[in-house]
Amino acid sequence: MKFSIAAFGIAISVLACGAHAADTSANDLLLLAVASTNQTMGPSAWEWPNQEPAKAEIASNTSASTIDIATVQSEVSSSKRSSISRQTYNLGNIVAKRTDYTVLTDGSDPLYSNAALQATSYLTYKVISNTTTYAVAKAACLAYCDSVKKCVTANMYNEIGNPLLDHVFSEKSNRKCALYGDVPSLSQMTNKGGQQLYGNNSPANYIENSAVFFTSTVSGPATPAGYSATFGPLTTAVSLDAPGYLKKTFLTQNDPATCASLCTSYTSNTCVFFDVFTAMMGDTVATYVCVLYSAKKTASDATMASISSMSVAASRGYTRN
Ligand SMILES: *[C@@H]1O[C@H](CO)[C@@H](O)[C@H](O)[C@H]1NC(C)=O
Ligand SMILES: *[C@@H]1O[C@H](CO)[C@@H](O)[C@H](O)[C@H]1NC(C)=O
Ligand SMILES: *[C@@H]1O[C@H](CO)[C@@H](O)[C@H](O)[C@H]1NC(C)=O
């Protein structure tokens, strides 16, 4: 692993010591893992539309490649994002109609309009008409988000140079509407196309008019069967160095039910409590962390707001009944 030195004091000192597990705290190891994971996704050029929304699962692609924390932290959207409360989203079980969407970028900003979003909690996408006005297309895309459980963000864009859109899909439209279960940052507008989908020597595909809308009017996730909600959502978590720490696992969504199943199936019924939270790097969601404990905890144990450059959001504790 290679880390950006400037912004990453703890990780560097851990690595410099040779990272003996015995003298490295569980919190430090969490920070290292969060900093080196990359779970950003979006619809691939070859993905079929109207698929079942992705379900929460254990994140498998924790990459150990070079990262640049400084880039993550200097992202530009903080002013737009900071006005909303992190605790209120990335939740499941959304039943209410979500009508209030905030424009993160409207598709005309040259800094972002030429790239589609790649972010955590990607759900699914569909093709919408490219012969309507922007306003009608936006309404169709947001109505699609309203109709999909867990959706809080929609990315609407045109993808030019994709044979599936041009010739195969029945919509005959190059306008995609991709849905996510969490609020992204503008630094995650990273997919510029660049694939020669019509074959070698063909022009590469590219993105136009990329716009992102998100809502924070969502309700919280259901309490998993067999558990009681103990605290949350909070911007603090139980320290992994607290007594009774068993294990941490990264999830692809902030999903208490998946964390509960890991607790229930943990060796010899030793897991009696879990804390599931969103790990942020700067203003960008890095991953979702499920932490199991063999000792019961209360809200007063949830005192950890950050570990160096990683901060905690949407933290919920559940006690096994
Ligand atoms: C994460 O992966 C995406 C998609 O492969 C890539 O565009 C992005 O640059 C990566 N981010 C980091 C911080 O490595
Ligand atoms: C990352 O992991 C998720 C969940 O296992 C999977 O759906 C996705 O395809 C993976 N992405 C990459 C780029 O490997
Ligand atoms: C709409 O998308 C189709 C399929 O990619 C394309 O052939 C057509 O030129 C597009 N029309 C407009 C108005 O952009």
Write a structural description.
The structure is a single chain. Strand 10 and strand 11 form a beta hairpin. This protein has two domains: 126 residues, no CATH class; 101 residues. The protein has 321 residues and is of the alpha+beta class. Strands 8, 9, 10, 11, 12 and 13 form a six-stranded antiparallel β-sheet that branches. Helix content is 18%, strand content 27%. One 2-acetamido-2-deoxy-beta-D-glucopyranose (NAG) binds next to loops. It comes from Pseudomicrostroma glucosiphilum.
Keywords, separated by commas or semicolons:
six-stranded antiparallel beta sheet, disordered N terminus, 321 residues, five-stranded antiparallel beta sheet, 2 domains, binds 2-acetamido-2-deoxy-beta-D-glucopyranose
Show the helix and strand layout.
Layout lengths: L8 H8 L9 H11 L32 H5 L4 H4 L20 E5 L9 E2 L4 E7 L5 H14 L5 E8 L2 H6 L6 E6 L8 E3 L14 E9 L12 E8 L10 E7 L4 H9 L8 E9 L2 E10 L12 E2 L2 E11 L1
Antiparallel strand pairs: 1-7, 2-6, 3-5, 4-5, 4-7, 8-13, 9-11, 10-11, 10-13, 12-13
Structural class: alpha+beta
Q: Residue share in helices?
A: 10-25%
Instruction: Give the averaged pLDDT, no decimals.
Output: 85
| β-strand number | 13
Cα(first) to Cα(last) distance is: 40 Å
Report the uncertain regions.
1-21, 63-96
Largest sheet: 6 strands, antiparallel
Q: What would you call the shape?
A: elongated
Output the helix-strand order: HHHHEEEHEHEEEEEHEEEE
What is the domain tally? 2
Alpha carbon gyration radius: 20 Å
Bound molecules: 2-acetamido-2-deoxy-beta-D-glucopyranose
Strand portion = 25-35%
How many helical stretches?
A: 7
Organism: Pseudomicrostroma glucosiphilum
Protein name: Apple domain-containing protein
Keywords: Signal
Signal peptide: 1-21
